[in-house]
Every structure is written in C-alpha cells, then in structure tokens.
Amino acid sequence: MALQSLDITRSSATTTPSPSQRQTPEVAKLIDISKCIGCKACQVACMEWNDTRDTIGTNHGVLDNPLDLTENSWTVMRYSEVETDRGLEWLIRKDGCMHCTEPGCLKACPAPGAIVQYSNGIVDFHEESCIGCGYCITGCPFNIPRLSKKDSKVYKCTLCSDRVAVGLEPACVKTCPTGAIMFGTKEAMLHHAEGRIIDLRSRGFAKAGVYDPQGVGGTHVMYVLQHADRPEIYSGLPREPAIGPLVELWKGAAKPVASLALAAVGIGAFFHYVTKGPNEVSEKIEKEFKDEK
Amino acid sequence: MKNDPDKLLRFTAPERVNHWLVAIMFFLLALSGLAFFHPLFYPLSQLFGGGVWTRILHPYFGLAMIFSFGGMFFRFRKLSIVTPADREWLGHVREIVNGDHRNMPEAGKLNGGQKLMFWSLVACMALLVLSGIVIWRAYFSFLFPVVVIRFAAVVHALAGAIMVALIIGHIYIAIWTKESIDAMLYGRVRRAWAKQHHPAWFREITGGDK
C-alpha cells in the first residue's frame, strides 16, 4: 500500500477485498471552463509537484504545448476555437485523468495492484507493479494513460493522491489564479457547480451544465461546461464515455466463463476415460497379428 | 523395440521434431498468456521471471510459434484435406465417443477428427497472430485505433482459450487412444494398431490385410 492513510476500494486483477476499514468521503476536482484563461499555471504546478520534466518539443503554431499528454505531462490545456450561437468562442479545456468511478484502466489491467482506486475516488497507478502491457490504454474511455519509452511503465494524473492523503488540495488547484479549478468533496463540488450553472444560464448560456458522465459511474474530475449539450466541441470530450462492450466482454464475462470451460474440458476428459476406458486395439485384430511384437 | 523397422512408419523424424517444437512453444505461450487471462493464473508469470518478463517474452514466443507452426502447416495441409469419407466418419459421433470401431467408415492416415483438429488450430493460430500483432503495445499498437485494439484483445483472449481447450482435447485423445503417442514419439506403430485405427492407410502402405 503506497499510502497507508488511504483505503482501497478496488485493486486491479484482484478478486478478494482490499484494505477498506475506513470510509473516506469522495473527493472531486471541479474545472470551470468558463473561468479558465488558459495560462497553463496548472501544467507548470503539476510538473513542479510531481517533479516531471517533458522533453522540449517544437512550436506547432498553436498554443497547445505539448500537443498531447505524455508520460511526463499528466495534464495539458487544449485550445479550440468554435462557432456557437454566441459567435466565435475560445474554449480551453484542461485535459487529464477523469478518475472514473468505474475505471476502464483498472478493469483492463492484468497486474495485481498496479492500478488502485482509493475509497475517496482517486484512481492511482502503482508503477512498481506495472508490467507495461498497455491494457489500461486499451481500456480507458478518455485516452489518458501514457506508456513511457524510458521504463515501459504507464503514467497519468494521480489527482495528487500524496497531497490529498495529508489534507492538501492538488497542485493544479492550489496554483490556479482564477479559481477555475476547485477541489473538495464530490458533494460540495456538485453543489458549487449548480450555482455556477445558474449563473451561466442567467448570462445567456442556456445549455450550461456539469460534466459528470454516468456511463463510467460519474467522475472525480468534473467540468462546468458552457455548452453541456455539445461536450465534443471541447477538443473532443466524449459525449457518453463508458467502458465499451468490447472491454466488458474481454474483461467481464469472457474470463470466468472461459476459465470454467477449460476446467470442464479437462474434467470431462478425465471422466470420459473413467466411463469409456482406453481405446485399445481389439482382441480380434491382435489375434491376426499375434506374431508381431 | 520401439522403432523396430518392421513396424509401420507413421511420422518421419523431421515431422516429429516439428511437432514437438510446436508443443514446446504452445506450453510457453499458453502458460505466459494465461497469466494475463485471469488473476487466478497470474502466479504463472513467476515461471518466466515475473510479470514484466512475461509481458516481454510472450510476443517473442509467438514469433517462434509462427515459424514452428508454419512448418507444421506446410507439412500437413495436403494430408489434412477433408474428404467426403472424412465427413461420413465425423458423422458417427456416438461410435467415436465410445471408441467403437465396428461400424466406423475406414479412416486414412489421418481421420476426420484429426483433420478437423488441424484446421481448427490453423484458424485459431491465424486469429492469434493477427490480433497479437495489434495488441503488441511495444511495437505495433500505436498504428491502430483504440477500437481495433479492443476488438483484437477480445479475439486474442477467445482464440487463446479455444486453442487451450483444443490442445487439452488433443492431449487427452492421445492418452485415451493407446499407443498413438508412440507414433509421435518414435515414429513407428504396430501393424495391428494401424489396422485398428487407420485401416485405409494400413491397406495403402501394406497393400493387403497384414
């Protein structure tokens, strides 16, 4: 257990209960896109606290830098210019792990304990148990985990589980100069989001809403969207993210059913032998060839 | 004497070597693959030096399997062509299960069941190779969209499970049918055995009843 003070609700590739004596309240990060100015202080704070350094890239002619999440950049700002009923809008979304209540990464992971979900809702990777298969990338509905070429382990946002464990807010929350990123219990964050939505609606954003997708059981990183009816305009935020039917089949029914079927084949074969006996050369043919040895 | 020249040669030395290479690769692949299949089997990864080594080695075992199974395919594909006589043989399910030879149509060098096993394994192997390339994260997965990778993961798991089931069946039938394993271990079988289990082949190579 990496963090003794955080109980575990779920552990990858584990079929028995994890340490879960205590019940901590569910936490959540709320990202209010209508308040974000795209300063990237959160990106910097994330690298500061977690002590990651990305390689210096090239200028792609856009503000997005780096262009995508990497094993060293656990959060990136994604900028999009979109025509809405209010004219041209500049939508900036802080992308990173959503800390799903039903995490696809954890479901897909074959290494016991490499991915855990704390009882406060944070989904964390324990890289020392990671085997580098990349199944979490296959299982994630948000395309978040990144496999390091240096050590073949996957990395992503931890929601600063180490800070949260000792009662601090995540580094990105602490640094945000406009208060666009907030942190607290999930209940408090949903309550705060309601107020923000009322405010946005009164100012003409008729479809403002909170992004807490129920397809993954809700998330522990939520957005306030000005246009909640069109999440995809925010640099491709999935409309209805879920652990898809293929991953459900792969990691759900297929494994126990197939394991039982294999056991049945083996046991069936044994009892076939016991009931039918060996398949030997008949006495009649043996007599024909009695000279042969 | 196990390899008495008076006995009938069923499988040549190269065929036997090829078969056992495939068998060794199968065990390495099945044991390492099962480690990722269900948490119950994860301890199998210890056989290969832990989870990371198992993840590294499994696809390379697969590469070795492509070559060894490829050899089997080209050696046995003509022999495994299913004929109408084989279809009739396969229709006698009850007699096959009971090991009752009295009313069975005459089997050739390979019977209908063995041919069906061959083509089932070929199909599984093709699916495993194709899907395995897609989910080989270190070198190939980045070439494919995530939906294709998810589909390949399902195909790989199911084809692998079917393959293991087929091989359990294959091994059992080799134990059940006494002396048949001699054919693959030493190459030669007794004339009586050949007449009992593969009468059409027996007549073809001896030209008679004895």
Structure description:
The complex is a heterodimer of chains A (293) and B (210). With 293 residues, chain A is an alpha+beta fold. Chain A has two domains: 8-243, Alpha-Beta Plaits; 247-288, Single alpha-helices involved in coiled-coils or other helix-helix interfaces. Chain A is built from eight helices and eleven strands. Chain A has helices spanning 41-50, 104-108, 135-139, 161-165, 171-175, 186-202, 245-276, 283-288; strands spanning 8-11, 27-32, 76-84, 87-95, 115-118, 123-125, 146-147, 154-155, 181-185, 209-211, 221-225. Chain A has a four-stranded mixed β-sheet. Chain A has a three-stranded antiparallel β-sheet with strand order 1-5-6, with no helix packed on it. Chain A has a two-stranded antiparallel sheet with strand order 3-4. The radius of gyration of chain A is 26 Å and the shape is elongated. Chain B is mostly helical. Chain B has a single domain (8-206), classed as Transmembrane di-heme cytochromes, Chain C (Fumarate Reductase Cytochrome B subunit). Chain B has helices at residues 13-37, 51-76, 84-91, 93-98, 112-134, 146-176, 180-185, 191-197, 199-206, and strands spanning 8-9, 188-189. Chain B has a two-stranded antiparallel sheet with strand order 1-2. In chain B, helix 5 (112-134) packs antiparallel against helix 6. Chain B is elongated and about 60 Å long. Chain B starts with 7 loop residues before the first strand and ends with a helix. At the A-B interface, helix 3, helix 7 and helix 8 of A face helix 1, helix 2, helix 6 and helix 8 of B.
Secondary-structure map:
The complex is a heterodimer of chains A (293) and B (210).
Chain A: E1 8-11, E2 27-32, H1 41-50, E3 76-84, E4 87-95, H2 104-108, E5 115-118, E6 123-125, H3 135-139, E7 146-147, E8 154-155, H4 161-165, H5 171-175, E9 181-185, H6 186-202, E10 209-211, E11 221-225, H7 245-276, H8 283-288
Parallel strand pairs in A: 2-11
Antiparallel strand pairs in A: 1-5, 2-9, 3-4, 5-6, 7-8, 10-11
Chain B: E1 8-9, H1 13-37, H2 51-76, H3 84-91, H4 93-98, H5 112-134, H6 146-176, H7 180-185, E2 188-189, H8 191-197, H9 199-206
Antiparallel strand pairs in B: 1-2
Helix pairs in contact in B: 1-2, 2-5, 5-6, 8-9
